[in-house]
Amino acid sequence: MDTVLDAGGTVTDDWPVRSPPFDPSQAASVAGVVLAAGTSSRYGGANKLLARLDGDPLVARSVRAFLDAPVDPVVVVVGHERERVRAALPDGVRTVHNPAYADGQSTSVRTGVDAIADDSDAVVVGLGDMPFVSAETVATLERAFRAGVGDPLVAAVDGQRGNPVCFGAQWFDDLRSVGGDVGGRHLLREASTTALVETGDPGVRRDIDRPEDRP
Hints:
The strands form two sheets. Strands 1, 2, 3, 6, 7, 8, 9, 10 and 11 form a nine-stranded mixed β-sheet that branches. This protein has a two-stranded antiparallel ribbon with strand order 4-5. 25% of the residues lie in helices and 22% in strands. The protein starts with 8 loop residues before the first strand and ends in a 17-residue tail after the last strand. The protein has helices at residues 58-67, 82-88, 105-116, 135-146, 172-177, 185-190; strands spanning 9-10, 17-18, 30-36, 52-53, 56-57, 74-78, 94-97, 122-127, 153-157, 160-168, 195-198.
């Protein structure tokens, strides 16, 4: 599974699991960033983000979960076939171009963080090829951050970690310094305050890598 900061797979780290409901105790400006710059190298030559799912481009479905959640702004990082991807996006998002997208996912993380860092207290980072994540999941991460239950926060279902992932502003400089295609997995593992957020949403573990992954 393509993952933000390697947040997929069976949990092997000793992280606490936090379950809703959450009682947000602090005001915070939480942004959303969706990574949609990749080359779809495992999708047989086509751009998977533009594949249709129930009549909509896959990337539009992925982004809509952020638009329907209390995160603002919603920034989509584009790269490969950027104009076609931009044209497929719903209204209400801001796009930023990552010209170095071929150098790995970390470059898109940096581009997205740069786009929101001056105005946001936290960011929920998701993937453009995960159209089954619900808006409630994004909202749950936002509420969990404002409730102070941990930072970073990783969406989970049934004890397995997935995506999206939420980082407070204290991690923005670290996110800008990550490299390669695995992003900042070390941030999740090294932080003493990392927590899993139980979402009850199987979509946090389901992405589209190959044509056969589509329903």
